[in-house]
UniProtKB/TrEMBL annotation:
Domain (Aminoacyl-tRNA synthetase class Ia) ranges: 3-61
The keyword NADP belongs to this UniProt entry's keyword annotation: no
EC class of the enzyme, as a word: ligase
GO terms assigned for molecular function: ATP binding; methionine-tRNA ligase activity
Protein name per Swiss-Prot or TrEMBL: methionine--tRNA ligase
GO process annotations (BP): methionyl-tRNA aminoacylation
EC number per UniProt: 6.1.1.10
Classification via Pfam families: tRNA-synt_1, tRNA-synt_1g
Signal sequence residues: none
Keywords of the record: Aminoacyl-tRNA synthetase, ATP-binding, Ligase, Nucleotide-binding, Protein biosynthesis
Organism: Candidatus Giovannonibacteria bacterium GW2011_GWA1_44_25
Amino acid sequence: MKTEKDKFYITTSIPYLNAPPHLGFALEALQADVVARHSRLRDKDVFFLSGTDEHGAKIARAAGEAQKTPKEFVDGLAVVFQDLLKKLNISNDDFIRTSDKERHWPGAQLLWKKLAEAGDIYKSFYKGLYCVGHEAFITEKDMEGNVCAIHKKPPEAIEEENYFFKLSKYTNRLLEAISKEDMKILPSFRKEETLNMLKEIGDVSFSRPSKDIAWGVPVPSDATQTMYVWCDALANYITALGYGESFGSPTSTGNRTSKFERFWPADIHVVGKDIMKFHTIFWPAMLMSAGLSLPKIIFVHGWVNVKGEKMSKSLGNVIDPIPLIEKYGSEAVRFYLAHETSVFGDSDYSDKHFSEIYSGLLVNGLGNLLARTLKMISLYPAISKPEEGALARYPIKKNLEFLTTGEKKRWSFEQASPSFLVDNVLWLAYQKAMAAYEISQAIKNIWIYLGRLDEYIEDYKLYKMVKSQPEEAKVVLWHLAYSLASVAWMIKPFMPETADKILLSLGVEPTSREEWKEFSAKEFAHLFPRIQ
């Protein structure tokens, strides 16, 4: 009897379409893609969602400056974001747009109605400081002097009648859910930040007058108000699954609705730290009000900075990922984002650093190691697995140091063979890091090991050994081939095309990790061409 796979629902946030994508969104998409691909390799039934946030004052203003209607403006930019996902080889299963009146609007409006039925929406006057960059009201804590601390522009003083959401009603339930990790927030220090924010959060404005913001989802039964852009946007995580199809019940029939029943709650939302509050406080409170389950994990990543500054149009330091992909290839960009950026902290980018990493770790690292190994294997019809006694004759001679949970730990295996280390040390460290979503740690450990394999060739002067002791050299080559094939399988979530090329070049199938008994050298182009 065939058993049903465990489901796994993962999302990126939906980037705001006031400007083209930058390297920060590419990082988020890559992080989510690595987790999604790893989950598929673990035989999970994965649904991976991305999309775009397309309403609000900032987009209406940007469209006006571009002399376009808001619809024309977002239609043009949505294609750019979809193109980036395609060029970066992101394996998302769906792409939701909040301007989609058939897929998104009915569910967003149904969610509003559920909150209203729970008695959690009321009308009142609001006076405060509105930041167009945030698309939200901010407080003095969000400012540096007279400007927004993030967007570096003064907010607008606004007084208007809006609908409000009774967020304060759910403060204690949120505190309990987060403290008990019914909804887990990663990393742990973001959990503490959320708990501290909850102590000071009250009810929140939930709509804007449609006379001021017409570009958005209308409030059900009140055409004078438009749903607040973040209120509408957060609903994407359930509308993409069919919630509210035909403005009906989420249990109605239909393919998209069955997705809702199958995949909600989300297993993980991947979001940036600048929108953490919306995902760790506002969104779960809305779900509680609507009687829906909370997401299991909120994964909060840091920023990609340039010379210590957050990327922004005003500073002129925005890094467009498309030229990087066109110059170095998507696999190199994927590697850089996984290996060279902190998962949960901020990271700094420079063109010089990217070039150094490409040349050092990819061209002269993995690429050169594979080429050397294949050249020596090509001297034989095939390399078969030696007997166990023979495998132990050529151990790694130096200690290895792997990363574990953010700290360094030394394993002393002076008499351990490479294939033993792969199966009993590297693989376990990799699985532990991936389970904790420490994806940078996982791939760094792989490259630590690859660096040691380069030294392993020199330890035994293998290039001489294939001539002077050809049969003994086959044992060392087995260790190298097995290690490279194992590494290829581990990097499938990170660099899927590179992984398959490695496995095919070693004469094994890229779709199965059954016990490898033989390797042979196949013709292949160098994994990473040198770029001047």
